[in-house]
Amino acid sequence: MTTTQNISTAAPGVTKPPRRFTFITRSTATLWANWKSRLGLIILACFILVAIFAPLLAPYGASQDGFERNADASAAHWFGTTAAGEDVLSQLIYGSQISVAVGFIAGLLSTIVAMVIGLSWGYIRGFGADVINFIVNLFLVIPGLPLMIVIAAYLQNGGLVMIVAVIVITGWAWGARVLRAQTQTLRSRDFVTAARFSGEPAWRIVFKEILPNMTSIIAGGFFGAATSAILAEAGLEFLGLGDSSIVSWGTILYWAQNSNALLTGQWILLFAPGLCIALLALSLTLINFGVDAISNPRLREGKSR
Amino acid sequence: MNPILEVKNLSVVYESSGFNALQAVDHVSFALEAGEFVGLVGESGSGKSTLGLAITRLQKSPARTNGGEIFFRGKDIRELDAETLRQQRQGGFAMVLQSGMNALNPVRTIRNHFIDIFRAHGHVGKSGWDARQIDLMEKVGLPKETLARFPGELSGGMRQRVSIALALSLEPQLMVFDEPTTALDVLVQQAIMDTIKSLQKSEGFTAVLVSHDLGVVLESTQRVLVMHEGRIVEDAPSRDILENPQDEYTRMLLSHYADPRAEVVELPGFPDRARRDTGAAARTSGATARDGRSSDSAIVVDHVSKVYPPPRRGEQAVTAVDDVSFTLEPGQSLALVGASGSGKSTIAKLITGIEKPTAGTVTFGQLDVAQLGRRQIRELHKNVQMIFQDPYSALNPLHTVEYTLTRPVVNFGGLRGPAARKRVLELLETVGLAPVEQFAAKLPHQLSGGQRQRVVIARALASNPQVLIADEPVSMLDVSLRAGVLALLEDLREQWGVSMLYITHDLLSARLVTDNIMVLNGGRVVERGNTAQVLQHPEDEYTIRLLDAVPNPARARGAAV
User: I want to staple B376 with a disulfide (CB 3.0 to 4.6 A). Which of B244, B352, B372, B552 is the partner?
Assistant: First the structure.
């Protein structure tokens, strides 16, 4: 956008509207005004802070063992220790790093894939659209979890990169479908036709004219994708399909299950990571209520009277 | 006599968090006598619809009455609770909405819509349902077979009639019609207004007609309330408004009506076409004549037909355009008029290469429009530009005026950086949006409808086109803004030597800005010739019907005498 920069220097008297900035502040204000999404934002902020400051917060190292095995909760180990003699609280704190990171990275990547495919699919017509339609439908009809398990088993302990890849491969199709529908309604609007008359190439029409009008749907899609990514990541780890040597909430569950924690009375080993996963997913879902309010101003207004 | 509705000092405000409160209705007082037919007129944003919704208690958040009282038969309706309000809908007050035709449930038959109402209110015994339904359908001029149809099978006009019948089924004493015909075709509009008028007489309900069109209102109502910026500026019998308007604003509204059939047609700032001398540069708005470049290529439409495949299997194919030929000479202005479905917009699509003709050829200079590839279409758009009907959807809400105008300048003019910006500011000046730098930085929602349409025109001019295709460029604008936009188009055409195809159903504006006219009906040209001559001495029956449908306050006077 060199053009705009030149312009601002050429005419300093002109006030450019700070539109990107206002959009962000206005969105945040709307999110904050809605109590559900405010709660979600607070919970999410807690998890992110814990993930960032994990080394400071955790009393011990993530895989530091040598403590008493299968110990119950005590002053030294608030949540007890695992069968391998590791501190559960420390594992929980370090585990948040994986969940938050995988959630956001996988969510972001699958949103991007959904965006690129959904928008072009909605804009083009004819044979190309039919081909994309076939591929997307293929991904939609294959049940997600079995496909994930097959891919994960096939890729064999590739670690986090593999898990992210599996989640992205199985998670973009719905988003693409939603964005395609929205693109199709927007493409018949006059301003899109007008852009064609302005000599704009197709990619510019799709990404500069249509895309900015769907920001809130994309944001909603992102939070949805991040939620399912967090759940999928925990699920795969729990099934032992991930790298069981890293510390995440999923692997805590996996090892707790392996050591029959519930039978030995250490319910906290299953309960604590489960609750964390649920809370993190909940926080994103709550934020999505607020995102809905941005895309649909009717939800922003109070009751009629 | 006791007034049926009395409004005292009513104020309605729109409040939503993060925005300034907007006082849409500001201390309005008036009274309606039983059996009166009153018009409520104002331009967009005058608060007329808000007032209409308030007096029927249909307003929704964020609108809120913040003062005043509304007495319906002596009771303040602002204090009714939901259940009393629901019960009084029978024999009380009803409303027919602008989009009333979209208010029908697409998966239920018309009969079911009536039955829902009968069930909810129980004012008609089950044995009387059929008779009552048929009776109501007859009143609004629909055959009784319509009852078995689904809303999707009916035309817009028929659906609006159904929604009037539904409102009537509760025998309301007060009916508010909010722009009941605005979304409809010109010819249908007139028929619906006739139905409303005769119903009002035969049923004897009190009616309020909310409309932006003073012509329509004066033709049908006895008394008119003129609203401007939330206040009622004039309240007088229709005749007085017409013959002796007191308020400045009313006078301004009235001045924008004229009879397209008249010998001399003038609007404010718009002298009659025949009398206008060639020195039109006198009324320019600072437009810069382009350097000797005027259009040199004609658009030739030669025996063109466009047939769309049948909408459903087993139905007939739709012939949108049927063997139409015409030539748009360089510098000429040609009006293409007709009701909706007459094929006039399809012709625009054929000329701009968006659609391909089924038969015949469209040529622009040496280019055969139907044979163009993607790159050549771009070349065509450099010379043939389009002005859209709806300025509210023709501008991307997220881009500034500057961005919108920069794109064609960059794409077609090859200018970059400061040169492109200079050109953008020139364009803004040409369309009369000054101070240019302030307008360049604005987003569409900060502009009025007229200003937006000027931006749309500026964008069309950015590529220095030879031909402008204007598809109903003023039909979405307020009456007071229309003349300005039309004058701008006229100036541009004269100074820049652009040829213009002016597509419209509005014969008055066609008379003002075009030399020649073509009347289309069902895809065929039924009449063509010099605009002034055709409109003064129409020969085809369809042209005459179109002319009769033009709302004209003066004709109302003739009828009243």
Answer: B372
